[in-house]
Each structure stands twice: as C-alpha cells, then as structure tokens.
Write a structure and sequence with these properties.
Distance between the termini: 19 Å
CATH class of the largest domain: Alpha Beta
Strand content: 15-25%
Largest sheet: 10 strands, mixed
Helix content: 40-55%
CATH architecture of the largest domain: 3-Layer(aba) Sandwich
Number of helices: 12
Bound molecules: nicotinamide-adenine-dinucleotide
Radius of gyration: 21 Å
CATH superfamily of the largest domain: Isopropylmalate Dehydrogenase
Length: 370
C-alpha cells in the first residue's frame, strides 16, 4: 500500500459537480479494489466561489492547490455570472490557478474510441485508431507578450498590436516535457511553428533542436502550423506528440478535438514545473465547459472528467496500469452500447450521468475479475 495521494477537488459550476461525482465513484472503487487511497480536499472555484466569497477563487484554495499532488477540476461559468466584474468572473479563478501554479504545458489527447469513430465528421478510415497528444505552451507567447494595445497613430488612424515572444527557458521546458512524453508513447514529436515568416518561429525551431540533442532516441519533425492544420484533417494518424506555442496550440488542439466527435469525451492536463522533491504541479480537467443548458438534468457525459482522472493517475502518480484499466473500461462501456445524450447513436441505450458512472465501475470490476 502506497502513501495516500493528495487531491484537491474543485467541481465548479453547472455540470461540474455532476461529472466530478462520478470521478469520486471511480476513486471509491480504487480504494476498495486497488488499495490506492486518495486524501481528497474539496474547494470552490468559479461562480460557486463568487457566490460564497465574492471572488472566483480564494487564497486558501490556491494554497490548497499548491499543497496538493494534483488538482481535479470540473468546469466553471454560466449565465448567472455574466454580469459580475471581469476580475471576479468564473474564468478568473482558472486563470489564477494556472498562473500561480505556473502551469505551462497543456496536454490534450485526441483519441478516437472505436465505438465512436462514426461520430467524427471525417471518414472512418481517416480517424479510426487515432491517438494524438497535443502539448501547448500556455504561459507565454502572443497571449501574454508586451507591448500590446490599441493606439491612435500620430498622423491619424489607429492600430492594434500584440507581441509574440518566447525565451529559451520557456521553449526548453515545454519541449523537454514533450520529448519525455513521446518516450512513453511512439517516440515521435512534431514541433509546430511558422519559421518561414516569424522570427519567434525560427527561434522556437532552433531551441527545440537544441533540446532534442538530449533525446536522440525520439524522432523530431518540424512542421509549419498551417500545414499541420491541413495534415490534421488529411492524415491525422501520422502524428503522435505535437508540441507548439500558445496561439497555434489553441487552434490546433480544438481542430484535433473535433476529429474525435464529442466534447463530452475529451480530457486534459495542465502541467507545471517539478519541485525539489520531484513533485510536478498539475491540474486535470475536461475540455468541455459547465454546459448550463443540461446542468441538473442528469444528462452530462462524465467520461471526459473520468478520463482526466486517468491522466492524473498516469502523469502525477505514475499509475499507468490503473489509467489503462480506466481507459479500457471506457472503451468497453461504449462498445457495450451505452451512450449519454451527447454521443447518442441509433440502436444504442441512452443512459444518465449516474448510470454511465455505475456501468464504468461495473466494467472495472469485470476487467480485474472481481
Ligand atoms: P460547453 O462546453 O459548456 O457546452 C457546449 C455544448 O456541449 C452544450 O450544448 C453542452 O450541453 C454540451 N456539453 C458540454 N459538455 C458536455 C458533457 N460533458 N456532456 C454532455 N454534453 C456536454 O460550452 P459553452 O456552452 O460555450 O459554455 C458554457 C459555460 O462554460 C460558459 O460560461 C463558458 O464560459 C464556460 N466554459 C468553461 C470552461 C472551463 O471550465 N474550462 C471551458 C469552456 C467553457
């Protein structure tokens, strides 16, 4: 029996608490069947926190997040908080957590489950078996670079401008993480930029090549971002790990997400630096939002959040075997014909959030022969 792992649970708003409830079910199963115990602290974030404390996240919760081995987040936001001051908007809670924990790499897998391959807008033979990992730098680049602004020009007229800037240290840490990740997958990295037209692209390519010298066993391909977008819809299976900057990563990860067919199936991880004891700051959350249109209706698909927990097991706790089990259980419930409303197909059985969670746990039992 290993030491208890410290998790901070931040369910958030809308369907957040519903989908996080199903993660708790999986955690209970792990305590019972896999002797893996977690110490869970609960906290508020987003609109729920604003209602209770007048801000989107409290200092105490940020401190809890820093002290935890990993943070698991549901979703934030909803029309109820549309008119609160910008600095207290639900998303401000997420941004503060990402910033204070220095979460610099967002990992978005795009996996096509066999049973859902038909749900993709692309042809079955293009997406079947797809398994890509997009690593997006999230703390620098054009979203944060200065100078930025909207200004009047001296001779009349005006201009809007942003600055794309990366330091060697910023490229180094995200590239290193991507190469490390690739070693646990198919040992192939595509580094994506626009070195043909941007100085920061030339720099990105140079720095990635430098880091690559420490990973000679990993294949490195450089690709322009526009070509990458095209290749993602032409022949996506050529990719394993894609590493790219903040802006291109934003676009390409959404593009890759749609290859898989449903928002309710997409997990993510955002990772930060490793401390002196080897512990890496990390936050895991589904890609989808708080889905206010279906909140409280027992319709939410909990699988993206459960798959985010599987990522947490793999990347924060080195429990790859347990992560594999959960991913296999997801495959099996889908192959067995269970569907929440968002992934419903003809001839399948429509189930609620809870029934999906219960069925997944029953499948986990079957997988370990319990
Ligand atoms: P959304 O992802 O919440 O919903 C888009 C559509 O997908 C909706 O029809 C919704 O019902 C459906 N959907 C999403 N997740 C689902 C699930 N697990 N199961 C079944 N159906 C699901 O995006 P939106 O409607 O643009 O935003 C709603 C709120 O969520 C907004 O306040 C937005 O700011 C916020 N948001 C939060 C995050 C986050 O917390 N990381 C991300 C995106 C949006």
């Amino acid at each position: 029996m290993t030491a208890n792992k410290k998790l901070l649970f931040l369910p958030g708003d809308g369907i957040g608490p519903e989908v996080m409830g199903e993660v708790r079910r999986v955690i209970d199963w792990m305590a019972k069947r896999r002797t893996a115990a977690f110490d869970i602290t609960d906290g508020l974030v987003g609109g729920a926190c604003y209602d209770a404390h007048g801000c989107a996240v409290t200092d105490e919760t940020v401190a809890d997040a820093a002290a935890a081995d990993a943070v698991l987040l549901g979703a934030v936001g909803g029309p109820k908080w549309d008119d609160v001051p910008r600095e207290h908007r639900p998303e401000a809670g997420l941004l503060r957590l990402r910033k204070d924990l220095d979460l610099f790499a967002n990992l978005r897998p795009a996996v096509v489950f066999d049973a859902l391959a038909e749900a993709s807008t692309l042809k079955l033979d293009v997406v079947k078996g797809l398994d890509i990992m997009i690593v997006r730098e999230t703390t620098a680049g054009v979203y944060f670079g200065t100078p930025r602004g909207i200004e009047d020009l001296p001779g009349g007229g005006s201009k809007g401008f942003d600055t794309q800037v990366y330091t060697d240290a910023e490229v180094d840490r995200v590239a290193r993480l991507a190469f490390d990740l690739a070693r646990k997958r198919s040992s192939k990295v595509h580094s994506v930029e626009k070195a043909n037209v941007m100085e920061s692209g030339v720099f990105w390519r140079r720095e990635v090549a430098r880091v690559h010298r420490d990973f000679p066993d990993v294949e490195l391909h450089n690709m322009y971002a526009d070509n990458c977008a095209m290749q993602l819809v032409r022949y996506p299976r050529q990719f394993d790990v894609i590493v790219t900057d903040n802006l291109f990563g934003d676009l390409l990860s959404d593009c890759a997400a749609m290859l898989t067919g449903s928002l309710g199936m997409l997990p993510s991880a955002t990772l930060g630096p490793t401390d002196s004891s080897g512990r890496r700051a990390a936050m895991y959350e589904p890609v989808h939002g708080s889905a206010p249109d279906i909140a409280g209706k027992h319709m939410a698909n909990p699988l993206a959040t459960i798959l985010s927990f599987a990522m947490c097991l793999r990347y924060s706790f080195d429990m790859g075997e347990d992560a594999d089990l959960i991913e296999q259980a997801v495959q099996n419930v889908l192959s067995g014909g269970l569907r929440t409303a968002d992934i419903m197909q003809d001839g399948m059985a429509k189930v609620s959030t809870t029934v999906m969670g219960e069925s997944l746990v029953a499948e986990l039992d079957k997988l370990i022969g319990a």
